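Researcher: Please translate sequence to C-alpha coordinates.
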Amino acid sequence: MPHTPLPPCSILLLAGGRGQRMGGADKGLLEWRGKPLIAWLHEQVRPLSDDLIISCNRNQARYAPYADQLVSDAEGDFPGPLAGIRAGLACARHPYLLVLPCDAPLLDRELLQRLLQAAGERAVLLRQGDQWQPLFSLWPRALRGQLDSAWHAGQRSPLGFLRSSGALTLDCAADDPRLSNLNTPQLLEQAAQDRPQPGKDA
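Model: Translation complete:
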Protein backbone atom coordinates (compact mmCIF):
# COMPACT_ATOMS: atom_id res chain seq x y z
CA MET A 1 0.00 0.00 0.00
CA PRO A 2 1.50 3.37 -0.97
CA HIS A 3 2.39 5.69 1.88
CA THR A 4 -0.11 8.53 2.29
CA PRO A 5 1.63 11.85 2.97
CA LEU A 6 0.53 13.50 6.20
CA PRO A 7 -1.13 16.91 5.80
CA PRO A 8 0.72 20.02 6.99
CA CYS A 9 -0.44 20.67 10.53
CA SER A 10 0.11 22.92 13.47
CA ILE A 11 0.17 21.21 16.88
CA LEU A 12 -1.37 22.56 20.07
CA LEU A 13 -0.36 21.17 23.47
CA LEU A 14 -2.89 22.13 26.12
CA ALA A 15 -1.18 23.19 29.35
CA GLY A 16 -3.36 26.08 30.45
CA GLY A 17 -5.55 24.54 33.14
CA ARG A 18 -5.76 25.08 36.88
CA GLY A 19 -4.30 21.66 37.71
CA GLN A 20 -7.01 21.15 40.33
CA ARG A 21 -6.44 17.40 40.56
CA MET A 22 -2.75 18.11 41.10
CA GLY A 23 -3.38 20.50 43.97
CA GLY A 24 -3.06 23.53 41.71
CA ALA A 25 0.30 22.52 40.22
CA ASP A 26 1.08 23.35 36.60
CA LYS A 27 0.69 19.84 35.17
CA GLY A 28 2.88 20.22 32.12
CA LEU A 29 5.87 21.07 34.28
CA LEU A 30 5.54 18.14 36.70
CA GLU A 31 8.38 15.66 36.38
CA TRP A 32 7.84 12.11 35.15
CA ARG A 33 10.79 9.79 34.67
CA GLY A 34 13.24 12.62 35.08
CA LYS A 35 11.77 15.33 32.85
CA PRO A 36 8.64 17.48 32.67
CA LEU A 37 5.51 16.01 31.14
CA ILE A 38 5.62 18.69 28.44
CA ALA A 39 9.05 17.43 27.38
CA TRP A 40 7.66 13.96 26.63
CA LEU A 41 4.96 15.43 24.41
CA HIS A 42 7.45 17.74 22.73
CA GLU A 43 9.71 14.80 21.93
CA GLN A 44 6.86 12.87 20.34
CA VAL A 45 5.34 15.67 18.23
CA ARG A 46 8.30 17.86 17.28
CA PRO A 47 9.08 15.90 14.07
CA LEU A 48 5.50 16.31 12.85
CA SER A 49 5.32 20.10 12.59
CA ASP A 50 7.26 23.34 12.28
CA ASP A 51 4.45 25.11 14.15
CA LEU A 52 4.29 23.76 17.69
CA ILE A 53 2.00 25.84 19.94
CA ILE A 54 1.60 25.54 23.71
CA SER A 55 -1.45 26.93 25.46
CA CYS A 56 -0.32 28.07 28.91
CA ASN A 57 -1.61 30.67 31.34
CA ARG A 58 1.42 30.76 33.66
CA ASN A 59 5.13 29.88 33.65
CA GLN A 60 5.50 31.01 30.05
CA ALA A 61 9.29 31.28 30.32
CA ARG A 62 9.53 27.60 31.27
CA TYR A 63 7.29 26.49 28.41
CA ALA A 64 8.95 28.65 25.74
CA PRO A 65 11.84 26.23 24.95
CA TYR A 66 9.30 23.57 23.94
CA ALA A 67 7.27 25.68 21.49
CA ASP A 68 7.37 27.82 18.39
CA GLN A 69 4.47 29.87 19.74
CA LEU A 70 2.83 30.34 23.15
CA VAL A 71 -0.81 31.32 23.53
CA SER A 72 -2.90 32.23 26.56
CA ASP A 73 -6.65 32.33 27.07
CA ALA A 74 -8.27 35.55 25.91
CA GLU A 75 -10.36 35.53 29.10
CA GLY A 76 -9.06 35.17 32.64
CA ASP A 77 -10.02 32.72 35.39
CA PHE A 78 -9.18 29.55 33.43
CA PRO A 79 -12.29 29.18 31.24
CA GLY A 80 -11.32 25.66 30.10
CA PRO A 81 -9.63 23.81 27.22
CA LEU A 82 -11.94 25.15 24.54
CA ALA A 83 -10.47 28.60 25.20
CA GLY A 84 -6.99 27.21 24.52
CA ILE A 85 -8.17 25.52 21.33
CA ARG A 86 -9.76 28.76 20.18
CA ALA A 87 -6.49 30.62 20.76
CA GLY A 88 -4.57 27.89 18.95
CA LEU A 89 -6.81 28.01 15.90
CA ALA A 90 -6.43 31.79 15.77
CA CYS A 91 -2.64 31.60 15.39
CA ALA A 92 -2.13 28.23 13.64
CA ARG A 93 -0.07 28.56 10.47
CA HIS A 94 -1.24 25.35 8.78
CA PRO A 95 -4.65 24.10 7.55
CA TYR A 96 -5.03 21.64 10.45
CA LEU A 97 -4.47 21.87 14.20
CA LEU A 98 -3.62 18.68 16.08
CA VAL A 99 -4.77 19.14 19.69
CA LEU A 100 -3.29 17.12 22.56
CA PRO A 101 -3.29 17.35 26.37
CA CYS A 102 0.01 17.94 28.15
CA ASP A 103 -0.49 15.05 30.59
CA ALA A 104 -0.44 12.12 28.15
CA PRO A 105 3.24 11.07 27.85
CA LEU A 106 2.41 7.56 26.65
CA LEU A 107 1.19 8.77 23.26
CA ASP A 108 3.02 7.26 20.33
CA ARG A 109 3.65 8.25 16.74
CA GLU A 110 1.31 5.64 15.27
CA LEU A 111 -1.74 7.10 17.02
CA LEU A 112 -0.81 10.65 16.02
CA GLN A 113 -0.36 9.59 12.40
CA ARG A 114 -3.73 7.86 12.48
CA LEU A 115 -5.37 11.13 13.48
CA LEU A 116 -3.54 13.09 10.81
CA GLN A 117 -4.38 10.58 8.10
CA ALA A 118 -8.07 11.16 8.80
CA ALA A 119 -7.77 14.86 7.94
CA GLY A 120 -10.57 16.29 5.85
CA GLU A 121 -13.27 18.94 6.00
CA ARG A 122 -14.50 17.79 9.42
CA ALA A 123 -12.76 17.61 12.77
CA VAL A 124 -11.67 14.21 14.07
CA LEU A 125 -11.61 12.99 17.66
CA LEU A 126 -10.75 9.77 19.44
CA ARG A 127 -13.13 7.56 21.35
CA GLN A 128 -11.68 5.12 23.88
CA GLY A 129 -14.19 2.32 24.25
CA ASP A 130 -17.37 4.22 25.14
CA GLN A 131 -15.49 7.29 26.44
CA TRP A 132 -15.03 10.31 24.21
CA GLN A 133 -11.57 11.89 24.17
CA PRO A 134 -12.10 15.35 22.64
CA LEU A 135 -8.67 16.65 23.70
CA PHE A 136 -7.06 14.10 21.37
CA SER A 137 -8.38 15.63 18.17
CA LEU A 138 -7.64 17.19 14.80
CA TRP A 139 -9.31 20.48 13.90
CA PRO A 140 -9.45 22.06 10.42
CA ARG A 141 -8.45 25.69 10.77
CA ALA A 142 -11.53 26.47 8.69
CA LEU A 143 -13.62 25.77 11.82
CA ARG A 144 -12.32 28.92 13.49
CA GLY A 145 -15.31 31.11 12.59
CA GLN A 146 -17.81 28.44 13.61
CA LEU A 147 -16.02 27.97 16.93
CA ASP A 148 -15.95 31.73 17.59
CA SER A 149 -19.70 31.90 17.01
CA ALA A 150 -20.33 28.93 19.30
CA TRP A 151 -18.08 30.45 21.98
CA HIS A 152 -19.95 33.74 21.94
CA ALA A 153 -23.20 31.77 22.19
CA GLY A 154 -21.93 30.19 25.41
CA GLN A 155 -20.38 26.93 24.26
CA ARG A 156 -17.52 25.86 26.56
CA SER A 157 -17.34 22.11 25.92
CA PRO A 158 -14.86 20.78 23.34
CA LEU A 159 -16.93 17.61 22.99
CA GLY A 160 -20.16 19.56 22.66
CA PHE A 161 -18.70 21.67 19.87
CA LEU A 162 -17.09 18.74 18.06
CA ARG A 163 -20.26 16.68 18.07
CA SER A 164 -22.40 19.62 16.94
CA SER A 165 -19.99 20.26 14.07
CA GLY A 166 -20.30 16.68 12.80
CA ALA A 167 -16.80 15.54 13.76
CA LEU A 168 -15.58 12.11 12.73
CA THR A 169 -14.67 9.53 15.37
CA LEU A 170 -11.68 7.19 15.47
CA ASP A 171 -12.11 4.29 17.88
CA CYS A 172 -9.43 2.98 20.24
CA ALA A 173 -9.59 0.09 22.66
CA ALA A 174 -11.03 0.86 26.08
CA ASP A 175 -7.75 -0.16 27.71
CA ASP A 176 -5.43 1.65 25.26
CA PRO A 177 -2.65 2.95 27.56
CA ARG A 178 -1.58 5.61 25.08
CA LEU A 179 -4.56 7.76 26.09
CA SER A 180 -3.79 7.69 29.80
CA ASN A 181 -4.10 11.14 31.35
CA LEU A 182 -1.66 11.35 34.27
CA ASN A 183 -3.71 14.05 35.95
CA THR A 184 -3.46 13.07 39.62
CA PRO A 185 -0.38 12.50 41.78
CA GLN A 186 -1.40 8.85 42.17
CA LEU A 187 -1.70 8.23 38.43
CA LEU A 188 1.60 9.98 37.79
CA GLU A 189 3.41 7.84 40.32
CA GLN A 190 1.74 4.60 39.25
CA ALA A 191 2.54 5.15 35.57
CA ALA A 192 6.18 5.88 36.39
CA GLN A 193 6.43 2.54 38.18
CA ASP A 194 4.23 0.28 36.06
CA ARG A 195 4.42 1.39 32.47
CA PRO A 196 7.31 0.51 30.17
CA GLN A 197 8.92 3.50 28.53
CA PRO A 198 7.16 4.20 25.23
CA GLY A 199 9.23 3.54 22.12
CA LYS A 200 10.78 6.63 20.59
CA ASP A 201 10.12 5.42 17.04
CA ALA A 202 6.67 3.95 17.52
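Researcher: Any highlights?
Model: The two ends are 19 Å apart (CA to CA).
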